[in-house]
Amino acid sequence: GTGALSLLGSPLGAPSCPHGPALLFVKTSQGKEEGRKFYACSACRDRKDCNFFQWEDETVSEARLAAREEYNRNHQPSFTHTQNVDRYKNFVALPLSKRRFCQECQQLLLPAEWEKHSDHQFLCNISTAQLKSPSQLLYPLENKKTNAQYLFADRSCQFLLNLLIDLGFRRVLSVGTPRLHEMIQSKASEEEFSVRSLLLDIDFRYSQFYTEDEFCHYNMFNHHFFGGEAAHETCRKFLYEESGERVIMVTDPPFGGLVEALASSFKKLMAMWKETEKEGHDNKEMPMFWIFPYFFESRILDFFPNFSMMDYQVDYDNHALYKHGKTGRRQSPVRIFTNLTPSMVVLPEEEGYRFCTVCQRYVSSGNQHCEICNSCTSKDGRRWKHCVLCKKCVKPSWFHCNNCNCCTLQNHSCEKTDIGCFVCGKAGHKRSACPSLS
Ligand code: SAH
Ligand code: ZN
Ligand code: ZN
Ligand code: ZN
Ligand code: ZN
């Protein structure tokens, strides 16, 4: 239909699916709520991945509740995290020739299990180096609507790590950033490298490679720790800044929307940090890097008005569009949003970033300071142009449309819609025609 879905939150007592408490939604049209409210899975927006559905006002029979509980139990991973940690110990004790990884089941195999996987594809001679880079061993879950696992290009990952080390952080809460976590973990064995990381991610395959102190199975859309109170406590302990080891949270969530659900979980993680040491933190917030596309800027600022968007373009390995190429580079739309003072976030000059003394932040080479706006206005790295009618800078490919009374793409249709676009929040177009996505 024409309506959009609005998230109403995650009320206490919400029913659960295998991914933890469900979220409450309502269909909206023209900005008005319409129809019955319903619960749906927080993590999977593709109903093929989780088809949980319940009307808010529905009475669920005892029998259905019992069936649901059983279903949720049956849809938990076949091994617990503790079992996986044990299995790992046994695995590394094996000679190289006996170390197999089943590619179909995405699982490290112990010799007794070979038989069961005999007609599956597997990798042999799994080296210690491979075990230290699970993100290379596991295939990325690219399912757009659910996992959207886009891994950092080495250059971007290295940049992030150096940046946070230079900023003095010694602990990283890696929320949905397995590759950053892995880079930190594999360096942690080196001398003079004192940074530690805790990975929170919904991808349980990682529990095969990390202990309970290194990985928590976590859903960032409903702040659900699958490991219960013990996992909560692990996270709390990690956030406690012993001996002045400062913590930063780095997150790179799937881009498919639900910004309010993410923001609500991140606020809960921030609150956890704040509660760990009441005296020291005063009015401070846990430092954070939220990695997300620039066209979500206004949505993020709705929830975190003190955040700023950095010009750095985050590149990915397995994303055709967001890759850094030598020629004809497709510019990545992905940026870092942070509550740190922008001037502290130093961007690499060798990649063309420069410091704007007026804006007091690093900007990309194409981002010209506009004298009228008095700021470096480009969001996408290209040079933007100032429109006197709109009284702001706009993309170079836009022109001012007198019908719409704003700047937009040349070949748009002048239909008006009252409700704002789901992606950029602006009126005048729908999500499918959002100029930010062009
Ligand atoms: N660029 C990052 C990966 C980002 S991809 C890196 O290279 O480290 C998004 C990550 O979020 C994936 O690891 C995915 O498993 C995780 N994720 C997806 N949905 C999630 C959810 N509901 N809760 C927690 N993590 C989730
Ligand atoms: Zn198998
Ligand atoms: Zn301007
Ligand atoms: Zn204009
Ligand atoms: Zn128009």
From TrEMBL:
InterPro entries to which the protein is assigned, alphabetical: Mlase_EEF1AKMT1/ZCCHC4 (IPR041370), ZCCHC4 (IPR039846), Znf_CCHC (IPR001878), Znf_GRF (IPR010666)
Compartments where found: Cytoplasm
A single Gene Ontology CC term: cytoplasm
PROSITE patterns assigned to the protein according to its UniProt record, in alphabetical order: DHHC, ZF_CCHC, ZF_GRF
Chief localization: cytoplasm
Assigned keywords, A-Z: Cytoplasm, Metal-binding, Methyltransferase, S-adenosyl-L-methionine, Transferase, Zinc, Zinc-finger
Domain named GRF-type: residues: 17-59
Top-rank lineage group of the source organism: Eukaryota
Occurrences of domain CCHC-type (ranges): 421-436
One annotated GO molecular function: nucleic acid binding
Protein name: ZCHC4 protein
